[in-house]
Amino acid sequence: MKKMLIVETKLHLREWPFLLFTIGLPVGLLLVLGLSIPTMTERAGGGERPVDTQMPSLMVLLSLLTLACSVVPAVLATYREQGVLRRMSTTPVHPARLLAVQLLINLAVGVVSTTVLIVVGSLVFGSAAPKQWAGFILVFLLGTAALLAMGLVIAALAPNGKAAPGIGSLVMFPLMFVAGMWLPRDIMPDALRVVSDFSVAGPFAQALKDTWAGQPPQLMHVAVMAAGLVLFGGLAVRLFKWE
């Protein structure tokens, strides 16, 4: 397991465009939007600025969605297409270990990306780190697990490595929309708000924002993420093929 983790980590580091996109894009968007749009750094009624809670939480979600919908499906579908998983199934090293290693590596990338966002936000905009750390960690781990389970389902359905990112994009961009990336959840029409509330991405983004501002996550948001983890985890186990 340890040797496999080292090997897969080295392979991931060689794919630097993926890392650059996953970490660099959210940080770049935070900087561009925060520095170019005055309302991002203005306090409405003396409350939190968008750059303090809303923007960082959405950028964390963007990073994790990129990992779950693009990176994980592409890697696993390529391994299956190349027969790597089938060959491993004939050795003492079960392919499930490779699956676990992939999830650990992508979780680590998500942690690095989130840490960079917190540091950059603090240095450039004077934004505070999440004020409700216990709740933030719970939400981060639960939401990340649910999204990665979704990524495993995409990997299971993708016919090959080239098709996987395209299928992931069809899932990723609607999830970004209902999470409030372009239209804030507070002003969504009622019907769209209901979709957002049960999309996993919507509750994840809102729970991140709440804990960033120092509030505990809402029980409904935690329940939706947990249900998403169970649902997509079960589908991944049922649908995933090693060859």
From TrEMBL:
User: InterPro entries per the record?
Assistant: ABC-2_transporter, ABC2_TM, ABC2_TM_bact-type, ABC_2_transport
Q: Where are the transmembrane segments?
A: 16-37, 57-77, 98-121, 133-157, 164-183, 219-240
GO BP terms: namely:
response to antibiotic
Q: How does it sit in the membrane?
A: Multi-pass membrane protein
Gene Ontology molecular function terms on file: ABC-type transporter activity
**Alphabetical keyword list:** Antibiotic resistance, Cell membrane, Membrane, Transmembrane, Transmembrane helix, Transport
Q: What is its main location?
A: membrane
One Gene Ontology cellular component: ATP-binding cassette (ABC) transporter complex
Q: Where in the cell is it found?
A: Cell membrane; Membrane
Stretches assigned to the ABC transmembrane type-2 domain: 17-243
Q: Which family does it belong to?
A: Belongs to the ABC-2 integral membrane protein family.
Name the UniProt record assigns to this protein: Transport permease protein
- Where does this protein come from, organism-wise? Nonomuraea zeae
